[in-house]
Each structure stands twice: as C-alpha cells, then as structure tokens.
Specification:
The chain is an alpha+beta fold and about 525 residues long. The chain has 15 helices and 22 strands. The protein has a 6-stranded antiparallel beta barrel with strand order 1-2-5-4-3-6. The model is unreliable at about 1-10 and about 290-330 (pLDDT under 50).
C-alpha cells in the first residue's frame, strides 16, 4: 500500500510545474517535461486558466486567459492532461459565455457580483436543469450505432428540438438506453459496448476547441440566406452555409445590419461572438432578444481559431446534422459599407459598386424555380446603377440638360432605385424587414418603368411628337409617386396577396399610361 501511495504521489507531483516568469498574459514555467502542446493548465494558487503554446525541454510558455497580477515565481502550475475544450449539449442555447466558455449568468448568481473572480471554475452547461429526454424510436438494446447517429432528442426551447448524437469517436452495441423522462445533462442516457469495453454516455460532449469536428458529407449551399434587406437579397445574395464580410468605418451601420440579420433572416440559430466593440453591444442584443429565444450569445474572445470552433447547425449544411469545422478563408460575399452613404443617412450603407456576391451561380436553380425573372431584373438594376455613376461625371462637367433623353431616364430611375429600393428604414414597422416577394415585386415594377420609359423616349417619329423625360414626368406623375410609395406597404398589415395584387395593378396601369402617352 505504501508503494502504491508513493507512486501516486510521484505521478501527482510530475503533473505540477512552477512559474519561472510572468509578462502580462504570457507565463513561462519550469518542470513541465512530458507536457503537450495546447494542454490546459491551472496557473498559480488561484488556478487561473491557461494553455501551453510553446515547449522547449522542461520549459513551457503559457497563454493565461485571466488577469495575472499577483502571480509570483515559484507558484504552482498544474497540468490537467487534457486540451482546452468546450461543453456541447442541451442548455447552450440562450446562455452567455466569456471567452473560455464560463457562464456569466451562473457566475453572477453564485458570486453576487458583476465581476468574475479569478480562477472561477463553473460548468458551462447547467447541471441543475432537467431535460425531457425522448429516445429514438428505432433504437433499442442490441442496436449497433456509430459516431453521428441520433439516439434521442430534448426540447431545447419552444423553437428548437435538440437532437443528441453519438460522439464522433464512439461506436458499439447499445446495452442501455434511458426511457423517456427528465434527466440532467450529466446523467447517463446511453451505454455502448465495443470489444468488451462499456462506455456510458451523457448528453454532454466535451470537444477540444482546436480540433475540427468531423463531417460525413458537405452539402451544397443552394438556398439563399434571406435577410429582409432589399440591397442584400436582390443584388448581393448569400447562401445558407456561406460566409460574408461586412467591413465599414465607424458609424456605417455594421451593428444595425448584424442585428437585422439576427432578427429577420431565415435562420434557426444565431450565435453572436463579440470581441471589443462588438462585445459592448451585447446589452442591446440581450434587451431585444428575450430569454429562451434562438440566441446562444457569446461575449468575449474565444480561445481558438475560427477554423476550430464547432459551427452552429445553420452555419453550414451537413449530412446528419454534424457541424462543419473549417470556414473558408476568403468570404464569397462582400457587403462593403460606405462612409459617404452613411453620412447622407442612406441605410443600409452598402455600396453597390464595390460589393459583390460569388454565390449567384449556386443560387440559379433556386431562382429558376421560385422567381425566374429575378436574375434578369438584378442584372438590369446593377447596369442602371453603374451607368448612373458614369453619367454623374458627365453631369458635373456639362450639366444635366445636355444629356440625351435616354440618359435622363437612367439618372431618374437610378435615383428611384437608390432612394426607394436600396434604402430602408430599419426603425419603421413597414420597412425594417422586406419579404422576398415584396423585394422582387418592387424591383420588377421599377425595371418595367425604366424599360417603358427608355422605349418611349427612343421611339421614332417627328421631332415635335417625340416623348421626352419632361413629358413622362408631367404625364405620369401619379405613377412615379406610387412607385416611390411601394415601400410603405406593410407586410404584416397588408399581407402577401394584397401587396402582390397592388403591384400587379400598378404595372398594368403603368403600361396603359405609357401606351396613352405614345398615342
């Protein structure tokens, strides 16, 4: 017994190093032979969370993710033998974590303070909550399962049902499956046996943050991420599972766009990772999104790269619901915000000349089925905006009166597009969110007006009978006003059928008005 006790003491001492030096969040430690890269360590008597980022002999360089003031040379550094990992399972939705997945709400309740005490070690997923577990119908004792197979589900909230999967490295024959009932996340709900070894499984999966989650198959992104913002949905669409960059200067509306996407996009789960200024906006986010909504919010900097954080279900389509591990390095969609547009109070301040989308080809089959007219409308609208930019330089030199009548039509329709289609009032009930049917209907009427006006002014005939832009503006003033007022139709009050009927009626009257104008 004494020999066994001595061996355990030696093993315990071999897992403890000592602090050699402290420089801000970087700590060097000695007596760390046998440690592994990215191993989780507890530094000092307060057991601060750290990670090994460099090894040289028995010296290790540690990245400490907490305040290191008070650390001294000689303080203990305890190795855990495990990498830095996150807990995945029921309870993650609606929670708020700091950069190392410490639950801020639980810490505040336990400490009664707005500050996080150093060395706090609280489970990320709540252990006191019970979940209504329902096993899969086709799973029973004797069934063979492997990583990624769904063995049950729980109601995460009123919106989502959380499917429980066998961990990627687990497999075997089911020897126990819990009956329907209420269980905690740490309770054993499944037991597997493989090659004579039994493995109990709970609802929690502990996953290293720097390790990519495996996938069975990457599904193609061929369905649009509908944002409710006309400039994005119509001109620069993004696919579900795609990546988008939204750069912009201070005051350009990055926050408003990100929150609009979170509130109105066709997504099941929103994960908010805030760092620096973005983290300071969490107060408004939490006020607008009540508890129990689709937000698993994260404030802080995760101690991992974007390629190693397990992606939420809707962030990348995968077979059997398994998460994607690595995001593309270069975004396929670029929504560039313009400081000048923001200064003119044009929001969303997305510059239509520098923004782009490389997802158009992937979305062609979807548009052919749902809105076959949209690709041609998009191309025409972008061409009008591009021509307007070129004509603006000529107008500055020689004036608008010297332009051809067709160019005058281009300028005026481009103004309609910019002021009444691309621009949206995010704080209004009627225009903070624009359904896709309304976006397509508005764009179709504007492009139809442009084509009819160009055909009218470019028509052949005697000089005194030719139609000019001034004639169109005077004779079709009511049509122009109604085109401008299309955005005021409220999707909630008016409904889809009524709005589409109004747009169709406007188009018929527009065609009739141009016909009578020509006569």
């Amino acid at each position: 017994m004494e020999g066994t006790r001595g061996t355990r003491l030696e093993e315990s001492e071999s897992l403890v190093g000592t602090v050699h030096g402290v420089s801000g969040p970087v700590v060097t430690a000695t007596r760390m032979a046998g440690a592994a890269m990215y191993e989780l360590v507890r530094v000092g008597h307060a057991e601060l969370v750290g990670e090994i980022i460099r090894l040289e002999g028995d010296m290790a360089t540690l990245q400490v993710y907490e305040e290191t003031s008070g650390l001294q040379v000689g303080d203990p550094v305890r190795r855990t033998g495990t990498p830095l990992a996150v807990e995945l399972g029921p309870g993650i939705l609606g929670s708020i974590f700091d950069g190392i997945q410490r639950p801020l709400r639980d810490i505040a309740a336990a400490t009664g303070s707005i500050y996080i005490p150093r060395g706090t070690n609280v489970p990320a997923l709540p252990r006191h909550l019970d979940w209504d577990f329902v096993p899969s119908k086709d799973l029973r004792v004797g069934s063979h399962v492997t990583g990624g197979d769904i063995y049950g589900s729980v109601a995460e909230n009123s919106l989502l049902r959380h499917r429980l999967m066998v961990p990627p490295r687990s497999r075997g024959t089911v020897t126990y499956i819990a009956p329907p009932g209420h269980y905690g996340v740490a309770d054993v709900v499944l037991e597997l046996e493989f090659q004579g070894v039994r493995e109990p499984l709970s609802m929690i999966q502990l996953w290293p943050v720097r390790q990519v989650r495996p996938v069975a198959e990457k599904l193609p992104g061929n369905h649009p991420l509908l944002t409710g913002q006309r400039v994005l949905d119509a001109l620069f669409p993004c696919v579900q599972g795609g990546t988008t960059a939204i750069p912009g200067a201070f005051g350009c509306g990055k926050t408003v766009i990100s929150q609009a996407l979170s509130k109105f996009s066709n997504s099941d789960v929103i994960v908010y990772v805030g760092c620096g200024e973005r983290g300071n906006e969490m107060a408004e986010v939490l006020r607008d999104f009540p508890e129990g909504s689709r937000w698993p919010s994260t404030s802080g900097t995760w101690a991992c790269t974007a390629a190693s954080w397990p992606t939420p279900p809707r962030a990348g389509p995968r077979r059997c619901g398994r998460s994607r591990g690595a995001w593309p390095r270069c975004p396929r969609v670029f929504w560039g915000l313009d400081k000048k547009l923001a200064q003119r109070k044009h929001f969303p301040s997305v510059n239509w000349l520098i923004s782009y989308s490389r997802s158009l080809r992937a979305l062609e089959p979807h548009y052919e089925r749902a809105h076959p007219e949209l690709p041609a409308l998009r191309d025409r609208a972008r061409r009008i905006l591009q021509e307007e930019e070129e004509l603006a330089e000529i107008v500055q030199l020689v004036g608008k009166a010297s332009l051809a009548e067709g160019d005058k039509v281009t300028l005026e329709v481009a103004k309609l597009l910019k002021d009444d289609f691309l621009q949206q009032n995010g704080y209004s009930a009627y225009d903070r969110f624009c359904p896709f049917y309304k976006t397509v209907g508005m764009l179709q009427n504007l492009v139809t007006f442009y084509e009819l006006a160009r055909a009218a002014v470019e028509g052949a005939g005697p000089e005194e009978q030719r139609v000019t832009w001034a004639t169109i503006r005077e004779g079709l003033g009511d049509i122009l006003y109604r085109l401008s007022a299309m955005k005021f139709q409220d999707p909630l009050k008016d409904g889809e059928q009524r709005i589409l009927a109004n747009f169709a009626r406007l188009q018929e009257e527009m065609v009739a008005a141009f016909r009578s104008l020509g006569d």
